[in-house]
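Session log. Operator J.P. requested a structure for one protein chain; no other inputs attached. Running the standard single-chain path with token output.
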Amino acid sequence: MQRHFVVLASLLAAACATGQQVETPSSAAIAAAVAPAGPATDPDAVRAAVLRRDRAALAPALVDSDPAMRAAAVRGLGQLQLPGDAAIVQALLGDVDEAVRREAAVAAGLIGLSWEPLVPEARDALAAAAAAALVKEETPAARSALVWALGRTGGAAAAPALLAVLDGDEDVPAALTSIGLLARYHGAGAGASAAVADRAFDPDPATRAAAAFALIHLRDPAREELLSALVRDGDPQVRAFAARALGEVTRRPSLLEALLGDPVAIVRVEAARGLLAAAAHSRQAGVKRRADLTMEASFAEALHRSTAALALQLRRGRKAEALQPLVLLLRGDLPTAAAAAAMDGLAGNAGLASLHCEAAAALDRARGRVEALRACAPSVDPALVARLEAAIPGRAEGAAEAREKGDGTRAAAAQRQPAPPSEPAPLRLPPQDGAGDVVLHTTSGTVRITLDDEAAPIAAANFRNLVARGFYDGLAFHRLEPGFVIQGGDPRGDGEGGPGFAIPCENGPAPYARGTVGIALDGKDTGGSQFFITLARAPHLEGRYTAFGRVTEGMELLETLLPGDEILRAVLQQTP
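Structure written below.
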């Protein structure tokens, strides 16, 4: 029997592997390339029906005697994320086959995250069914899927079911994460803070990190002392989440000051965000702003201001004269911060001074020589200065390469018009070994991405096809959220551009860890060429954005990129 869905994914991948210049198809053209409309008769045809967004074709498979068909069909319902299918998914949570129950649990979570929200009654019913299934479920994989789902469904039964999981030894980190997501998405789980706190000092760092993540969203002031201890944890992810959580509840921003000098970047970023949140909460509560609050809020605001300024200036060509005002601005903030610190007996302004040095290094990189960096404040860690200085020659060389490659490459990228949707060329089924990694040669170095053809075959094939067409060559990383994501693939450079077509979402429970590559969206089924890479764990993206790959080389380099850094060239390479 013809493997329709694999044919489609392979069609796109083959065009890349062979260098054929075919246009990536539109959603309508993709539908025409797969199985003809009608009832799905095998699991691959079920997946093709999902791609067509042909809900009616799934109906027979949902009651098929073959559990593989039922599992594929309910997986499809989850990817379609239609609120009206919640009742069907509820029924399949009690299927006799474990694989069907597992897929139904994931589908329940995905429908709970639907872009078209469930009505409260349907949400409560879905959560109640998932909670009841969790009590009965004995297989580990299906139980884990139910725990994952309950954090996304919302509903009155979700929090009690997750708290019961905390009383055992299995799926505890997942349950803690789901409790945090319940609070984030649905404002639920307010009474869970004490149970979460009991797990905050677990020997397992993943459990401690998940507890800190939950406390970010529970926002319980009674946990201030606990969080002030967690920010000294030996695990950087625990410290980062705890810093963010502490900023939501503390009225003593000085608790976070020491983290501005943490050796791990994500911790420093979350400390800055926490300080900014603390400043905002204090103003809202009418608390008099102390000198340390002013100083730390100034640092956090400078962090965000510098990011915005760099994004703007680097998009305009990363010229030294554009960066110099930013460096001077940050240098001007230093005396104010130092005076504020002295008034309250604090250690000083190391965080802001370090930020100034990083901006100075960016200026030196644009000039191709070390100059502004030598004027950094004496309070800055010499190791940081040495690291920044050591990076300048290589980065300057990359910038020179970008300029040499032509201002032509950037100009072509800026003028590139989205390709109009078109029908795919009729290609034969290619060999299945044509897949491979994507390597991005950037102005700062090389990044290797390994794609996940099993979880997201369309997104992976689309990405390879765009790479083979040279679509990404010369495009900039236009968005940077420190400690969260870096994003690129937009020919317009403002977050609104794309290739002229959209691909369907392929959402699932894949974790968004550090280095996960996802499809950027502006709503359901609106992905195209824009992609992002997570710089830290981001559980709230799971089930909402298609995860289609991971960075396997060059992750440290990504953490040094700035908005405006470019993809000089993207190429396909066989997986090592």
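Operator note: Residues 364 and 370 are 5 Å apart (CA to CA).
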